[in-house]
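check these tokens.
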Amino acid sequence: MKGRTGGRCSVRRQEELPFGWLFLFDQTPSPLTLQESLALQESLALQESALLKPVNRPLSSLSMRDKITAAVINFQTPDLLDTAVRSFIRVYPDISVLIIDNGSDDESVDLIRQLESEFSSRVTTIYNGKNIFHGPAMDMAVKKVESEFVYLFDSDTVTVRSNFLEMMLEILTRDTRSFACGKRVTVNKRGFLSTGGIPVPVSAYMLIRRAMYLQLSPFEHHGLPVLKCCTEAARKGWRVSPFAVDEYVEHKGRGTVQNFGYGLGWKSRLNYLLNKVGL
């Protein structure tokens, strides 16, 4: 789907809060039960010890091309996007890249068209007429492509080393109960970092098994788009496989959020206060 409709979305800059991972108050998933939590910790320990042995056989370029599509979301960050896309293609020239623009009204559209022209065999685009925000745009990307796996990366990332997708793909191929792979952290029910909480992948660089994702709630508009689907995945006994992707991809942390905020308004502040008082 190509073309661009009119429409300008004004997004107010939001107050920065600890961790930057905030969940909408009216959509907070119920916490895991004690039994669910114990089962989750046991499965994570099993995964660490048995499932994630070093990978010694890289997959062929053809296999990678057929199995993975990469996707990146942009809103008003053309310079960062240019570096993100070019650095990825330099390392993985055979993998298709989907660029979704969230209604930018700066130079982004011209830049994306230039990338599409320059890498016509590998780059496809979607131009949203307005900013639907990062989580819903990631969901759009996963539903738009047809590959078995989707590698989602942020516009403020720089791919500096190769072979990480081969290893992440091998992990998910061997472990059919894993629906995602990437840098894994644990958070509480509101999306704040918490020891022994819900395992989630850092969404700046994660590999998703598309068929399993489509059975979960979609990525949403909030500070941690993956929280709700990862909570559901944990209840199903599905795993987030850890991989040190940050050793291969640099995350600059100065993209849309720094410039425009999350666009959550009072809900983010309320969620922060409720988390502070333990609710």
Notes: The chain is about 35% helix and 20% strand. The mean pLDDT is 80.
